[in-house]
UniProtKB/TrEMBL annotation:
The keyword Oxidoreductase does not apply. Signal peptide: none annotated. One of its GO terms (molecular function) is GTP binding. This is RAB22A.
Amino acid sequence: MSTTQEIKLCLLGDTCVGKTSVVQRFVLDSFKPGTETTIGASFMSKTLLVDGKSYRFQIWDTAGQEKYRSLAPMYYRGASAAIIMYDITKEETFKSLKSWIKELKERGPKNIVIAIAGNKNDLEDEREVTTSEAAEYCSQLGAIFTETSALTAIGVNELFTNISQQLPGQR
Ligand code: GDP
Ligand code: MG
Protein backbone atom coordinates (compact mmCIF):
# COMPACT_ATOMS: atom_id res chain seq x y z
CA MET A 1 0.00 0.00 0.00
CA SER A 2 1.26 3.47 -0.82
CA THR A 3 1.48 6.19 1.78
CA THR A 4 -0.91 9.06 2.30
CA GLN A 5 0.28 12.53 1.46
CA GLU A 6 -0.71 15.10 4.09
CA ILE A 7 -1.76 18.48 2.72
CA LYS A 8 -2.47 21.52 4.77
CA LEU A 9 -4.83 23.73 2.81
CA CYS A 10 -6.12 27.14 3.84
CA LEU A 11 -9.17 29.02 2.66
CA LEU A 12 -9.20 32.68 1.78
CA GLY A 13 -11.76 35.03 0.32
CA ASP A 14 -14.37 37.54 1.35
CA THR A 15 -16.95 36.69 3.95
CA CYS A 16 -20.14 34.91 2.77
CA VAL A 17 -18.71 33.64 -0.52
CA GLY A 18 -19.31 30.10 0.75
CA LYS A 19 -15.95 28.93 2.09
CA THR A 20 -17.40 27.06 5.05
CA SER A 21 -20.21 25.62 2.92
CA VAL A 22 -17.82 24.24 0.28
CA VAL A 23 -15.70 22.58 2.98
CA GLN A 24 -18.83 21.06 4.49
CA ARG A 25 -19.87 19.77 1.08
CA PHE A 26 -16.43 18.26 0.50
CA VAL A 27 -15.94 16.74 3.95
CA LEU A 28 -19.48 15.84 5.02
CA ASP A 29 -21.28 15.89 1.66
CA SER A 30 -23.99 18.10 3.12
CA PHE A 31 -25.33 21.62 2.70
CA LYS A 32 -26.88 23.64 5.48
CA PRO A 33 -28.55 26.78 4.17
CA GLY A 34 -28.23 29.96 6.16
CA THR A 35 -25.21 31.65 7.57
CA GLU A 36 -23.04 29.58 9.81
CA THR A 37 -19.98 31.53 10.74
CA THR A 38 -18.04 28.58 12.02
CA ILE A 39 -18.21 24.83 11.96
CA GLY A 40 -16.74 24.75 15.43
CA ALA A 41 -13.29 23.51 14.52
CA SER A 42 -10.22 25.28 13.21
CA PHE A 43 -9.81 22.54 10.65
CA MET A 44 -11.52 19.53 9.13
CA SER A 45 -9.88 16.71 7.27
CA LYS A 46 -10.78 14.38 4.48
CA THR A 47 -8.87 11.80 2.49
CA LEU A 48 -9.23 11.80 -1.27
CA LEU A 49 -7.99 9.14 -3.67
CA VAL A 50 -6.66 10.56 -6.94
CA ASP A 51 -4.98 8.43 -9.64
CA GLY A 52 -4.43 5.67 -7.09
CA LYS A 53 -2.75 8.00 -4.62
CA SER A 54 -4.15 9.00 -1.27
CA TYR A 55 -4.21 12.63 -0.11
CA ARG A 56 -5.27 13.69 3.34
CA PHE A 57 -6.46 17.28 3.24
CA GLN A 58 -6.27 19.19 6.49
CA ILE A 59 -8.46 22.18 5.69
CA TRP A 60 -8.15 25.37 7.69
CA ASP A 61 -11.26 27.49 7.64
CA THR A 62 -11.70 30.93 9.14
CA ALA A 63 -14.23 31.83 11.80
CA GLY A 64 -14.94 35.24 10.32
CA GLN A 65 -11.48 36.83 10.64
CA GLU A 66 -11.45 37.33 6.85
CA LYS A 67 -13.55 40.46 7.47
CA TYR A 68 -10.32 42.12 8.54
CA ARG A 69 -8.56 41.07 5.31
CA SER A 70 -5.70 39.58 7.22
CA LEU A 71 -5.23 36.23 8.87
CA ALA A 72 -2.90 34.99 11.60
CA PRO A 73 0.52 33.70 10.45
CA MET A 74 -0.23 30.25 11.90
CA TYR A 75 -3.09 30.03 9.45
CA TYR A 76 -0.60 29.86 6.58
CA ARG A 77 2.26 28.05 8.27
CA GLY A 78 3.14 24.81 6.53
CA ALA A 79 0.33 25.11 4.01
CA SER A 80 0.99 23.54 0.64
CA ALA A 81 -2.22 24.74 -1.00
CA ALA A 82 -4.72 27.56 -0.74
CA ILE A 83 -8.18 28.07 -2.14
CA ILE A 84 -9.15 31.67 -2.75
CA MET A 85 -12.89 31.85 -3.22
CA TYR A 86 -15.24 34.42 -4.70
CA ASP A 87 -18.99 34.44 -5.30
CA ILE A 88 -19.97 34.47 -9.00
CA THR A 89 -23.04 36.59 -8.10
CA LYS A 90 -20.98 39.34 -6.42
CA GLU A 91 -18.46 41.09 -8.60
CA GLU A 92 -16.82 42.85 -5.66
CA THR A 93 -15.77 39.44 -4.25
CA PHE A 94 -14.04 38.72 -7.58
CA LYS A 95 -12.31 42.12 -7.44
CA SER A 96 -11.09 41.22 -3.94
CA LEU A 97 -9.07 38.30 -5.32
CA LYS A 98 -6.26 40.71 -6.04
CA SER A 99 -5.80 41.67 -2.39
CA TRP A 100 -6.15 38.05 -1.22
CA ILE A 101 -3.45 36.97 -3.67
CA LYS A 102 -1.24 39.81 -2.41
CA GLU A 103 -1.83 38.76 1.20
CA LEU A 104 -0.98 35.14 0.33
CA LYS A 105 2.19 36.09 -1.61
CA GLU A 106 3.39 38.31 1.25
CA ARG A 107 2.55 36.06 4.17
CA GLY A 108 2.04 32.56 2.84
CA PRO A 109 4.70 29.93 2.13
CA LYS A 110 6.60 30.18 -1.14
CA ASN A 111 5.50 27.81 -3.92
CA ILE A 112 2.07 27.33 -2.40
CA VAL A 113 -0.39 25.86 -4.93
CA ILE A 114 -3.15 28.41 -5.53
CA ALA A 115 -6.64 27.46 -6.64
CA ILE A 116 -9.33 30.02 -7.33
CA ALA A 117 -12.92 28.90 -6.92
CA GLY A 118 -15.96 30.77 -8.22
CA ASN A 119 -18.68 29.52 -5.91
CA LYS A 120 -22.53 29.59 -6.06
CA ASN A 121 -22.62 28.63 -9.73
CA ASP A 122 -26.12 27.27 -9.13
CA LEU A 123 -27.29 30.92 -9.08
CA GLU A 124 -26.94 31.43 -12.84
CA ASP A 125 -29.66 34.12 -12.97
CA GLU A 126 -27.72 36.30 -10.55
CA ARG A 127 -24.32 35.82 -12.17
CA GLU A 128 -22.08 38.90 -12.28
CA VAL A 129 -18.75 37.27 -13.18
CA THR A 130 -18.51 35.28 -16.42
CA THR A 131 -16.71 31.95 -16.50
CA SER A 132 -14.47 33.13 -19.33
CA GLU A 133 -13.24 36.32 -17.65
CA ALA A 134 -12.45 34.35 -14.49
CA ALA A 135 -10.69 31.58 -16.43
CA GLU A 136 -8.61 34.18 -18.28
CA TYR A 137 -7.65 35.94 -15.04
CA CYS A 138 -6.60 32.65 -13.40
CA SER A 139 -4.58 31.44 -16.35
CA GLN A 140 -2.60 34.69 -16.32
CA LEU A 141 -1.83 34.06 -12.66
CA GLY A 142 -1.00 30.41 -13.21
CA ALA A 143 -3.71 29.48 -10.74
CA ILE A 144 -6.09 26.53 -10.93
CA PHE A 145 -9.65 27.65 -11.70
CA THR A 146 -12.89 25.82 -10.91
CA GLU A 147 -16.46 26.97 -10.51
CA THR A 148 -18.23 25.29 -7.61
CA SER A 149 -21.55 25.04 -5.87
CA ALA A 150 -21.80 23.92 -2.27
CA LEU A 151 -25.54 23.56 -2.87
CA THR A 152 -25.45 21.19 -5.86
CA ALA A 153 -21.91 19.85 -5.21
CA ILE A 154 -20.87 20.72 -8.76
CA GLY A 155 -17.12 21.24 -9.05
CA VAL A 156 -16.30 20.55 -5.41
CA ASN A 157 -14.50 17.22 -5.81
CA GLU A 158 -12.90 18.47 -9.03
CA LEU A 159 -11.48 21.45 -7.13
CA PHE A 160 -9.67 19.24 -4.63
CA THR A 161 -8.69 16.73 -7.32
CA ASN A 162 -7.13 19.51 -9.41
CA ILE A 163 -5.18 20.71 -6.38
CA SER A 164 -3.85 17.18 -5.67
CA GLN A 165 -2.59 16.93 -9.24
CA GLN A 166 -0.71 20.24 -9.01
CA LEU A 167 1.19 19.47 -5.79
CA PRO A 168 4.98 19.21 -6.08
CA GLY A 169 6.11 15.77 -7.10
CA GLN A 170 2.86 14.85 -8.84
CA ARG A 171 4.03 15.42 -12.38
P1 GDP B 1 -18.20 31.97 4.26
O1 GDP B 1 -18.43 33.19 5.08
O2 GDP B 1 -17.34 32.27 3.08
O3 GDP B 1 -17.72 30.79 5.05
O4 GDP B 1 -19.63 31.57 3.64
P2 GDP B 1 -20.73 30.52 4.18
O5 GDP B 1 -20.30 29.12 3.87
O6 GDP B 1 -21.05 30.84 5.58
O7 GDP B 1 -21.96 30.84 3.21
C1 GDP B 1 -22.56 32.13 3.17
C2 GDP B 1 -24.00 32.00 2.67
O8 GDP B 1 -24.01 31.56 1.31
C3 GDP B 1 -24.83 30.99 3.44
O9 GDP B 1 -26.15 31.49 3.53
C4 GDP B 1 -24.78 29.75 2.57
O10 GDP B 1 -25.90 28.91 2.76
C5 GDP B 1 -24.76 30.35 1.17
N1 GDP B 1 -24.05 29.50 0.19
C6 GDP B 1 -22.80 29.00 0.31
N2 GDP B 1 -22.45 28.30 -0.78
C7 GDP B 1 -23.50 28.36 -1.63
C8 GDP B 1 -23.75 27.84 -2.95
O11 GDP B 1 -22.92 27.19 -3.58
N3 GDP B 1 -24.96 28.15 -3.51
C9 GDP B 1 -25.90 28.89 -2.87
N4 GDP B 1 -27.04 29.10 -3.52
N5 GDP B 1 -25.70 29.40 -1.64
C10 GDP B 1 -24.53 29.14 -1.02
MG1 MG C 1 -17.11 30.72 7.05
